Amino acid sequence: MTKKNLLGALLVTCLVAASQFAFAHAVLVSSTPKAHGSVHGPSIEVDLKFNSRVDGTRSSLSLVMPGGGVQSLSLGKQAAPNELDAHAQLVPGKYTLRWTALATDGHITRGELPFTVE
Predict the structure, then answer these.
(1) 104: confidence class by pLDDT, cuts 50, 70, 90
(2) Which of 26, 32, 58, 65 could be joined to 47 by an S-S link, Cβ 3.0–4.6 Å?
(3) 12 within some domain
(4) Residues 96 and 17 sit within 8 Å (Cβ to Cβ)
(5) Has residue 5 got a pLDDT over 60?
(6) pLDDT for 35
(7) Model pTM?
(8) What range does the domain containing 107 cover?
């Protein structure tokens, strides 16, 4: 392999590797409450951590209540650029936390976390 071909192959490899970071979505890496977990109420802290920065002003959290209604949660000030935080007062029952996160690359990711309040 000539130096020119080797340099070209190295350049292509670097561009492919860099594109993986440029087009990454915000992936949830940890949460409180845990998916399918139980927490003690009535005061519940919600903390979602992602693998990349998220835009806290354009992301959202909502709760599907035990009766099926949906309640929006106000996001607190971001403790870190890759976190979304909120607080809720909840009675015992089964809930689903719905989240929408806007990553700084412009991609939106969504998810749901079912949990129980005891």
Answers:
(1) confident
(2) 32
(3) no
(4) no
(5) no
(6) 96
(7) 0.77
(8) 26-117
